[in-house]
Write a structure and sequence with these properties.
Elements: H1 2-18, H2 29-47, H3 53-69, H4 74-95, H5 99-115
Amino acid sequence: MRIKLFVLAAFAALVAVGCGGGSDSTLSAAEFADQANQICVDGSAAIKDAKTVDEFASTIEPYIQKIEDLDAPDDLKSAQSDFISISREQVAAYKAGDAKKGNQLGAESDKAGAAMGADECANKN
């Protein structure tokens, strides 16, 4: 009897996985916002010690990648894409020595961060 129950339990677990139980990596809007916010909090803390524009750019790039790696819900994919694109353009401007353009793009990045529901990704200063 124990073996039969074990087999049934194992079968039920396989069916659950096969039918999407845990295999869908798309986040809900709330999960996406929570994770993006935490990434931005961590990124903000990391860049506080940056002494140069190059240090800032090098430090923030992995956090931009982490935002990109999140599997946003369909209704936030466009905002996520905008945030990534603008943030990368901002980093490129700073690396090229164009702080004025980098700062201007910062305002656009803030709007994109807010649009994806991640207030921590929108500079409040």
